[in-house]
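Structure ticket #2291
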Amino acid sequence: MEVEEDGLVGDIRDNVGKSAEKKQKSALKHFDGFLRLWFKHRGEPYRHYSQLFHENTEDSNRFWDALMGGMFSYFATGCNGELGFESVNGYASSIKAYYTDKWRHNTYKCPVFGKQSWATLRRKLRTLFEERARQSGQKLTNPHQASTQDDMMAMVYSCLWLATGDAAVFLLMNIASLHYSGRSSEVALNRWSHLSSWQICELHFKYTVLSTYLKRQKLGEETNLTLFPHRENFFEDIYFGMIYRIIMLPDNDDYLFPKFAEKALHQSKEGRNDSKLVPEFVSQVFAHDTANRWSQTVRELLVASMLRYFDKVETAIQNAPHKDFGKRSEDHPFISTIYEYCSRAGVSETTFEAWQAEVKEGFFGDNLPALQIKLWPDSARNNRDPRTGTTLVDRRCLMDHYNTLAHHTEGLHLQVVKMRQEMSELRTGQAHLIGMVQAMLASQQGSRTFNGSGIDSPTAVSQSSPGAVSRSPGTDTQEEGRKADSELYVTKFTVGFAKLGSSPTIASVFFYFFDAPAITAYERELEEQEEEKPSRSLTCKFSRVKKTVRVMLLFVEEYPPDKPTLSTELMPWQEDLRELSQAAEEALRKEIFPQDENKKVKQSHLEATAVKQKIKEWQDETSELYRQLPSNTPKEVADWFSTENTQKTKLLKRKRKASTAVESVD
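Resolution: structure written out below.
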């Protein structure tokens, strides 16, 4: 209670801040070393710096005048020349601040700390350092060397090849420090809620760009920074850095850099036809954002940046020296997650490639004045001098004809907008007709298959294995027809689980298990290793996930329903699953950490000896603390959770298929 009272009624001038306190402590340490030599030289007994005081007498004024003069000489010529000018200047200011604050109650002041006397000492200090710099040929100050473009590229490529969430955060931090022109401690405190979009107007064109808030801690200034996309390189583009971090680390933390913030706070063509799929794809990318931290405009800007650089990033990943991304780029979590989102939104490979081309074309059209001529497409560089090969530019557009061109541009703009709307409606209608034709062809093919196998009608067979994907009957709509006839893309278990980080929370493990789905992802990886014995690392990781989900199911009221494939049903199902996982984590936290309300339960916490003992009691039918799986848990699932061998998932799946097939025939 004493600490709280000190914080409430303590003198605010005693709180110099952690950074200044650390700097002052280092300065006083050097000052104490000087005092030992100075008192020895004067033939006087040594006194600690905290025991020195000032009186309003001539002798005291002379003492402090000689003391400060000797200190500046010691800093300039002593210390074996190891102290730089900026360090000495800072140390002197810290020592002055220590004594002026200590004597702030005195009505008289020490003359040597006066403005004129102190300025004279600092001027003499600079003169000595300049002379030393001339003799040694070194610089007076040694500023940090700025990173080159090659340095930026090397750092970003390294983060891509590491393929982890922490590396994605560092990648964004590296790019943000360049765009923000701020200290790491300032950039680390940036929040997603600070991010917004606004329009700027240049040369009669309007552009939508991002804006963020930044506080300059040293100067106390608050600024709103405008963030522009880079015209050429993804490893210098803040937009790409943000969307890469979101995809690789889809959390609900408001800070862009959670771990850095903790330290800073000192705490421990066909594609164009399918334009209606764009909002659905964007929604899949930001499905984890239950707090709606990003506006729709910000989301679309970030996704557009991802589409613009996707092919370059994929090439960079394939060039990784230490991982086999060259043959299977989809094994990288970033690429795999993008394909997974495309599958969920019903976006084909052709559509995705068309989106990339359209975004690049739009970026060129909107930013033509800022782009180098070498970056122009061939269609824009066809006006060349055949003799020299140089590009010809009409200089009149920079003078009298500019006004005429601008007038015509504004006059044609409305017509272009109307024509684009009409074209969009035509493309939408064309896409709808194509979808209906594809659905009819698929329906006819399905009817021939079922009639040929001797089954009277196509009955949907659902799988009830953990994390199974349920199928809805075909409907007349284009979207549902596409979904019913296609398999969702499933990322391999080792790739998908790696995105959770080295120490995932049990809520994220629970959500991943049913959303991936983990069973299907694990089976896919086992099938790839059929010729060889499955790696022990793979089976151990999946076994830990299985045990974690088994324990969490003891604290939920109902077993999660099967994962749907229709996008209209998928996102509500994901929201319900996320709420269920958070509720289970909260219930477990009350059992394991009843005193800590804000603690996140990690998967590693379940492996502690005390927690293992509790889990045994929850699963022991003779114990008073015995808990059961939810009542609606399928029997095959309950039996599977009771087995220890994680390679028996295929037997469970075959058994369930056989039973459902018999029921269908009956």
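Closing remark: The chain has three domains: 13-136, 149-379, 483-665.
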